[in-house]
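User: Hey, my collaborator sent me this sequence without any context and asked if I could get a structure. I don't really work with proteins. Can you help?
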Amino acid sequence: MMKTIDWVAMILVIVGGLNWGLVGLLNYNLVESLLGSWPLVVKIVYDLVGLAALYSIYAMFMMKH
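Assistant: No problem. I've predicted the 3D structure and written it out in C-alpha cell form, which is a compact way to encode the shape of the chain:
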C-alpha cells in the first residue's frame, strides 16, 4: 500500500523526468515555461523533484528489506 508521500514523490519524479525528456528532445523546459515569471517557485519545484528522487531511492532500498 502506497502512502501519500510515496504518491507525491512518484508524481514529482514523473514531472521531473518528463521535463528533462522535453529539454533533451525539444529543448523545451515545461517548468520554466509555466512558472518562469516566478523564479523562486521554479527553484522550489526543482528542489522538490530532487528530494522526491532521493526519497524514491530510499524507499526502493527499504522495500528490499
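In plain terms: The helical segments are 4-26, 30-35, 39-63. You can pass these C-alpha cells on to your collaborator as they are.
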